[in-house]
Design a protein that fits this description.
Order of helices and strands: EEEHEEHEHHHEHEHEEHEHEEHEH
Largest sheet: 6 strands, mixed
Structural class: alpha/beta
Distance between the termini: 43 Å
Shape: elongated
Bound molecules: adenosine-5'-triphosphate
Helix content: 25-40%
């Protein structure tokens, strides 16, 4: 279990992460979303024990992670641009990882070598971006981490490799109960992979919910009223995240229980009433609007 308690990380005078608390349970695949500059990478690096927070603490299974080699030996961080030693091959990087991560498994390294079509003796700086990303996965998973932290991990992978990597991650979670934390702007991928979602903005966590709960808690309602006065009466009563009018049809993004929302609208006996599910991308955009992010330019 990862416990993040009141963590703040400050660069110069800017709070990149601002008093954030969050618990990520063992075996979760946690998707961290957020606007550019929200503080996702900073939080991931703090969880991985790379950054020391100015206040607060991160604990993994009850033990502090910062400056704790035992705990850090169980955590692998994959940055958005994988870093390898200049001139190193996959084999040479494997030797390095072996010396740093006590859980390194030669068997797993060989097994994964059958999945990734890479020559382990080739220099990493001669590989394409996607091939280097594959190599980073191969090495990271061979360390047999208990916690795997990944910043934009699927960027650059082709669709077949994306599917392969997702399947390997599901297998790691199912068989070894590893905890995965992923930051990504690709919400389709996050929707596919993650069971839990956190949304950050301005260094704070706006939302921390199970994906299913998040999706069943936010609804798109299309409605044509018999009388436009009904719309004022109704929207005053509901937690509306977003409202649009197209001719006589109103579109609302509303939070709450589906049945209750439907009942509210039915009272006014509208001509048209449709409750539609939202994608994670839509939920993200409207939550951001609720947090003061200007989404008007994308709604043209
Ligand atoms: N090493 C650093 N030195 C100074 N400021 C930094 C540093 N790293 C991050 N920041 C600042 O902290 C804030 C959060 O950055 P961070 O990289 O964590 O955001 P992010 O959510 O990962 O963004 P993106 O989605 O654009 O990758 C930004 O304002 C950024 O300028």
């Amino acid at each position: 279990m990862i416990e993040i308690r009141g963590v703040s990380k400050i660069f110069q005078d800017r709070k990149a992460v601002d008093g954030l608390s969050l618990t990520i349970h063992k075996g979760n695949i946690f998707g961290l979303l957020g606007s550019n500059g929200a503080g996702k990478t900073t939080l991931l690096k703090t969880i991985a024990g790379i950054y020391e927070p100015e206040s607060g603490e991160v604990r993994i299974d009850g033990k502090p992670v910062f400056e704790s080699p035992d705990t850090k030996g169980r955590v692998v961080f994959m940055p958005d641009f994988p870093y390898f030693f200049p001139q190193a091959s996959i084999m040479q990087m494997a030797d390095f990882y072996k010396s740093v991560y006590p859980g390194w498994s030669e068997d797993r390294f060989q097994e994964l070598g059958n999945l990734f079509p890479l020559n382990p003796r080739r220099k990493l700086n001669r590989l394409s971006k996607g091939m280097r990303q594959q190599a980073a996965f191969w090495l990271a998973l061979s360390c047999m981490p208990d916690v795997l932290i990944m910043d934009e991990p699927l960027d650059g992978l082709d669709p077949v490799m994306r599917r392969l990597v997702k399947n390997v991650l599901f297998q790691e979670v199912a068989e070894r109960g590893i905890t995965v934390v992923i930051s990504s702007h690709n919400l389709r991928e996050i929707e596919d992979l993650c069971d839990h979602i956190g949304i950050m903005h301005g260094g704070a966590l706006l939302i921390d919910k199970e994906l299913d709960e998040l999706k069943s808690d936010t609804h798109k309602v299309q409605v044509a009223f018999r009388d436009e006065r009904h719309e004022h009466a109704l929207t005053a009563k509901l937690p509306v995240l977003h409202r649009e009018q197209r001719g006589s049809v109103f579109l609302y993004i509303v939070k709450g229980d589906r049945k209750r929302i439907e009942e509210y609208f039915r009272v006014y006996d509208p001509y048209v009433l449709d409750l539609l599910p939202l994608t994670l991308e839509e939920i993200f955009i409207y939550e951001m609007e609720g947090a003061g992010y200007d989404i008007a330019p994308i709604l043209l």
